[in-house]
Amino acid sequence: MAHHFFLPIVVAPGETVLLEGENAHHAIRVLRLRRGESITLADSNGQGYRAEIVAITEGRVAAAIKDPLASPEPRVRVTLYQGWPKGDKMDLIIEKCTELGVDRIVVLATERSIPRPDQQTCARRRERWQQKAHAAARQSRRHRIPAVDGPLGLAEALVKLRPDTLLLVPWEEERTRDLKSILATVPADRELALLIGPEGGLSRAEVDLACRFGGLPLTLGPRILRTETAGLACLAAIMYAMGELG
Question: What are the strands of the beta sheet with 216-218, ordered from one edge?
Fold first, then answer.
């Protein structure tokens, strides 16, 4: 299968483009690609193309754009609002949710989040998280890289909810409303958001705040899922219900 790259520009069939910087390093030094090999590219509009390497020089790879590719991006757009967990769990969450087709990830500093680093450390973490999303999107051959934002406070994040977004709030104290019944009534093009707490979950006050922004608390059944599992499980269920997993 052809190796995949992202371009920061818009391209079209018949053009020749240059892979430079990290893209060129990955192609030349890591993958050891050669002239004549096929690759796939996704441009800044999220359009994918088949391409052929036509020249390799020091630090640059020239590729001729061939045919456009069908988009693998899901019709349903899901934003994950993830309470900031301990350690490196956020890396795993970003990687796997990107593979599953998440549209955007917002890291939240919630009441029970333990990490409370300074502004400079947060900026470094955010850069690392975006790199994780980029690598996962490239490996899974997506045409768009999910944006990673945060850490933000819950109120600040909810104010920025896109209009008409359906906010789903898995919560261990909810007993009646469940994910399956909600998804049965949701059209495939509806924009969704998932609010997942960190270790220790969301507080009642945070759930109440989410409800004021239209959030729907729901149960995930009798199992108690860890923070790094809950968002993945919900996202997989959404993609399956919307016909995005076959």
Answer: 147-152, 104-108, 78-83, 192-196, 166-170, 216-218
